[in-house]
Structure formats: C-alpha cells, structure tokens
Amino acid sequence: MRSVPGWAVFSSACAPLVLIAGWAIAAVLEGPTYDPATTTISVLGAYGGAGFWVMTTALLALGVCHLVTAWGLRAAAAPGRLALAGGGLAAFAVTVFPAPSSGGSLQHGAVAVVGFALMALWPVLAARRESAAPWGLRPGPCLGACAVMGVSALWFLVELQLQGVAGAAERLVTSIQSLWPFVVVVSCRRRKVVVEFAREAPDRRRSW
User: Fold this and answer.
1) Neighbour count for residue 60 (Cβ, 10 Å)
2) Mean pLDDT of 80-93
3) Which of 10, 18, 131, 205 has its CA at a distance of 20 to 30 angstroms from the CA of residue 36?
4) 3-class DSSP state of 205
5) b or e along 39-48 (b: 16 or more beta carbons within 10 Å of the residue's beta carbon)?
6) How far apart are CA 69 and CA 66, in angstroms?
7) 2 vs 6, which has greater pLDDT?
8) Vertex 97 angle, CA 92 and 99, to 5°
9) 176 near 152, Cβ under 8 Å?
C-alpha cells in the first residue's frame, strides 16, 4: 500500500474550508436579498453578482485542491483518483460556464451534474480490497459514503424541483463531497503510522 504525502493532507483539508468560506463571504456581499436556505450556490457565482469573484475564486481553489489530492492519494485505486481529479476539473468548468443572473443554463447544469456524479462515485472507484487497506479505502465505508452523497444529492434535486430549501440541500451535499477526500487521506496517514509502529515494536522489545 503506497503512502500518502503530507501535502495531500493540506490540500484535502483546504477543500471544504475554501468552499464554505467562499459561499459564506459571497452571501454576505450579496446582502439580505440572498437567502442561503432557498437559493443555490450557483447564484453567487453568476456574472454581475456582488460575490461573483469571491465564489469564482473559491471554486477555482476547490478544483486545485481536488487535483492535488488526487495526485497525492497514491494508496487509492487509479479509477477513483481519476474521478476525483475529474471533480476538480468540473469545478473549473463551472467557473467557465457560470449560472446566469436569472433563469437557467444548460451548459452550467450539465457541468454541475457531471461534477456531482464524479464526486459521488469516486469513493467506490477508489476502494481497495486488500486487508491492509486504510479504513477510508475499504469497500464498506466507500459504499456508505457514496450512499450518503447520493441521498443528499437526490434531496437537492427534489428541493430544486419543489422550489424549497435547495440552497441548504446543495450546501449539505457539496460539504460532504469536499470533506470526504480529507477523511480518506487522514485514514491513509493513520494506517501508515500504525504499520510503522507495528514494524518497530519487535526492535523496541529486543532493546529492552
């Protein structure tokens, strides 16, 4: 099982932070007319909005974080790493095809759907069946993460159609998707520490 470098811990930890900080600051700049519970994050990144550059910068930073994490997550299976990297590229694409200030956009919607799908599927694609696999890369937790992301994404779609609390639902699913890479990386690093400690234990006993 290949090790995960320390800088992957940093990139994965930054992903949820930059995303949440981005939408929080952009919402403040939009003022009281913006309701984060009912209005989607995409509105914050629309051209002409007060928080446009903040949200755009946050999405670009999020994409960089996912790409760097995918590069460093060498313990994961290759298809999962590619899917995570694809999620990072989708974050870039969302800034290229932002939502309009009013109405919908087929291009923006398509890119967003692809990004949601890649980020929801990458855990199961990254899973390893080896007994020595870190917790975050074992089939059970990976399937559980996919299920939670899928259910939260379904809730977002339902709220979007009903014109309900779509903003809250979107924030939930994107928070989970941005946080899971950090959980996986930490589990890989922890597994490395446990293995190294187990290897050094006989030497310690002999030294006694």
Assistant:
1) 17
2) 97
3) 10
4) helix
5) bbbbbbbbee
6) 5
7) 6
8) 115
9) yes
Give yes or no for residue 57 having a pLDDT over 50. yes
- Residue 81: how many CA atoms within 13 Å on its side-chain side? 15
List helix spans (H) across 127-165: 139-162
Main-chain dihedrals φ then ψ at residue 38, nearest 5 degrees: -110, -15
Distances (CA, A) of 202 to 98, 182, 196: 58, 32, 11
Q: CA of 64: how far to CAs of 4, 15, 28, 61, 119, in Å?
A: 17, 9, 24, 5, 14
Residues 6+ away with beta carbon under 8 Å from 71: 8, 81, 85
Closest CA to 47 of 91, 89, 92, 94: 94
What's the sign of the alpha-carbon dihedral 62, 67, 70, 73? Answer: negative
Largest interatomic CA distance in the chain: 73
Among 112, 58, 115, which Cα is nearest to 84's? 115
In the chain, the N- to C-terminal Cα span, in Å, equals 30
Give, as one character, the DSSP assignment of residue 99: P
DSSP letter for 43, please. Answer: G
Q: How far apart are CA 169 and CA 153, in angstroms?
A: 8
pLDDT in tens, 119-172: 999 999 999 998 889 999 999 999 999 999 999 999 999 999 998 999 999 999
Q: Which pLDDT score is estimated for 47?
A: 84
* Token output for 62: 């999020």
Taking only the tens place, the pLDDT of each residue in 25-41 is: 999 999 999 999 999 99
